[in-house]
């Protein structure tokens, strides 16, 4: 029996992870219709994480929540039993900005707290919080306020939302936090190791990508430094404190959240190890296999799990920016790219759904035994 496990991440900008898995499965089935093909789309905690769990049969929950600039929209998370997977990007990420316009000083994580509260109200006692794709730099303060905390200025006034307002923060009160948090644990699915402040911190590394100019970055750095002095500085230098505009810091400091590799927690929750039993081949991938991929991105985590189980693993990607020897050193048997089939980037992206089927066909012909 030929058993192929398909565990791709999304091809950002063209295909979701379930769409990639579906296309690869179609291509492989053309060559080996007798093969058992198991689709397990994955993610690393960033955008697409909820999609991966819904594809695995978890309940899809929709809730009205404010986006980063306060505009209310539908936000989705996934739930099974007492575990909820909440994806920051799906609530207050860049994709939720009206007309794609950044508000670096005023954007907030408030909506994220609204979604977490909804999950707690539904009985969740383990919240997996995927950090990535953030549009704000508010140290997680907005999230905490939505969960019942109060952030006040020196004269006792509630602060407005947004990172810049934290310059005026003087008090943090947590007595009113959601009662469900007392018996819940929060895991941060996080693959960045940035501290909160300084040259490698949330502002210096990421704020420019969120539309902040030099003067605005100075304001946000000062605001986060003040926020740390108010909330407690124990986690300022912790790896991951700077994730998602400092949301990691707020979650660790006030909610007792524990950071963990995003792909590792995703694979555990999807019970990926048992999926590998009896597998002939694993196929994983993402839009671009590059230097960033080597630092804990989804395909590397899948590859490590497959190698531990003794199953060969092939990369199926949009493009590969790593030399073949580095791809092999990372544990992949081979790498197949859409750009091998269509070198023109625009046509490659536009035709990705069809091309990934041909990629599956090629992988089956190259790496599966002939009938």
Automatic annotation (TrEMBL):
Keywords recorded for this protein, A-Z: Kinase, Transferase
UniProt keyword Kinase present: yes
Organism whose genome encodes this protein: Nocardia bovistercoris
Lineage: Bacteria, Bacillati, Actinomycetota, Actinomycetes, Mycobacteriales
Family named by the database record: Belongs to the glycerate kinase type-1 family.
Protein name: Glycerate kinase
GO molecular function, one term: glycerate kinase activity
GO annotation (BP), single: organic acid phosphorylation
Signal peptide: none
Domain of life where this protein originates: Bacteria
PANTHER family linked to this entry: GLYCERATE KINASE
């Amino acid at each position: 029996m030929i058993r192929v496990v398909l565990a791709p991440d999304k091809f950002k900008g063209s295909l979701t992870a379930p769409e990639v898995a579906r296309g690869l499965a179609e291509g492989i089935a053309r060559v080996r219709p007798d093969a058992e093909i198991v689709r397990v789309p994955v993610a690393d905690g960033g955008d697409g994480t909820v999609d991966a769990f819904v594809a695995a049969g978890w309940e899809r929950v929709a809730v009205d929540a404010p986006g980063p600039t306060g505009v209310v929209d539908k936000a989705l998370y996934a739930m099974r039993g007492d575990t909820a997977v909440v994806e920051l990007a799906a609530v207050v990420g860049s994709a939720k900005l009206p007309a794609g316009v950044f508000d670096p000083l005023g954007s907030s994580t408030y909506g994220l707290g609204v979604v977490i509260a909804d999950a707690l109200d539904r009985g969740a006692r383990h919240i997996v919080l995927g950090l990535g794709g953030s549009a704000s730099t508010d140290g997680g303060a907005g999230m905490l306020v939505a969960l019942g905390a109060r952030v006040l200025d020196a004269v006792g006034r509630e602060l407005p939302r947004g990172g810049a307002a934290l310059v005026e923060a003087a008090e943090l009160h947590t007595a009113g936090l959601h009662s469900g948090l007392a018996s819940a644990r929060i895991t941060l699915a996080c693959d960045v190791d940035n501290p909160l402040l300084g040259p490698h911190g949330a502002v210096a590394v990421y704020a420019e990508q969120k539309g902040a100019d030099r003067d605005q970055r100075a304001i946000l750095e000062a605001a986060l430094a003040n926020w740390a002095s108010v909330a407690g500085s124990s986690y300022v230098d912790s790896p991951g404190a700077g994730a998602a505009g400092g949301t990691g810091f707020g979650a660790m400091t006030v909610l007792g959240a524990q950071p963990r590799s995003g792909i590792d927690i995703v694979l555990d929750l999807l019970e990926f190890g048992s999926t590998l039993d009896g597998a002939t081949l694993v196929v994983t991938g993402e839009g671009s296999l590059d230097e960033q991929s080597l630092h804990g991105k989804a395909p590397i985590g899948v590859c490590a799990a497959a190698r531990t189980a003794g199953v060969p693993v092939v990369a199926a990607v949009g493009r590969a920016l790593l030399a073949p020897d580095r791809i092999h050193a990372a544990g992949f048997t081979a790498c197949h790219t859409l750009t091998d089939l269509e070198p023109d980037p625009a046509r490659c992206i536009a035709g990705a759904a069809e091309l990934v089927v041909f990629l599956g066909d090629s992988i089956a012909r190259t790496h599966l035994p002939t009938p």
